Amino acid sequence: MSERTWENTYNLTDQQLSDLEDAETLMERMDLTSAESLLLSMLEESPECIPVLSNLGYLYGKHLSEFEDAVRYYDMVLEIEPDNAWARDARRRYSRYIGRD
């Protein structure tokens, strides 16, 4: 793996980083079922992994329009990391679709 120019804030393993990259590539290719499967398997191994939870929120909200699931994953991020502005903004955006503010 090439040297990173950014800090690995969440201390992810090389395997997690690779899997997250693969999941994002799958989403870009619109292979949403495979992206979901990969992210959910990662979540089983690390249930409090913020990047995985965030990507699941993004997948369910942006790509699948399953707003309740998106909000649920962003809620999980905010339980672990209450100051996560990105998750808070995304949760607010998707909460509007389900009538929850």
Give your account of this protein's structure:
It is a single chain. With 101 residues, this protein is mainly α. The protein has a single domain (14-98), classed as Alpha Horseshoe (Serine Threonine Protein Phosphatase 5, Tetratricopeptide repeat). Helices cover 67% and strands 0% of the residues. The protein has 5 helices and no strands. The longest helix has 15 residues, at 14-28. The radius of gyration is 14 Å and the shape is globular. The mean pLDDT is 93.
Number of helices: 5
**Integer average pLDDT:** 93
What would CATH call the class?
Mainly Alpha
Shape: globular
- In terms of quaternary structure, the protein is single chain
User: What is the CATH superfamily classification?
Assistant: Tetratricopeptide repeat domain
Q: What is the CATH third-level topology name? A: Serine Threonine Protein Phosphatase 5, Tetratricopeptide repeat
Structural class: mainly alpha
Task: Compute the CA-based radius of gyration.
Answer: 14 Å
User: Portion of residues in helices?
Assistant: 55-70%
User: Architecture in CATH?
Assistant: Alpha Horseshoe
Largest sheet: none
Strand content: under 5%
Instruction: Count the E strands.
Output: 0
Number of domains: 1
- N-C termini distance: 42 Å
User: Are there runs of 5+ residues with pLDDT below 50, and where?
Assistant: none
Order of helices and strands: HHHHH
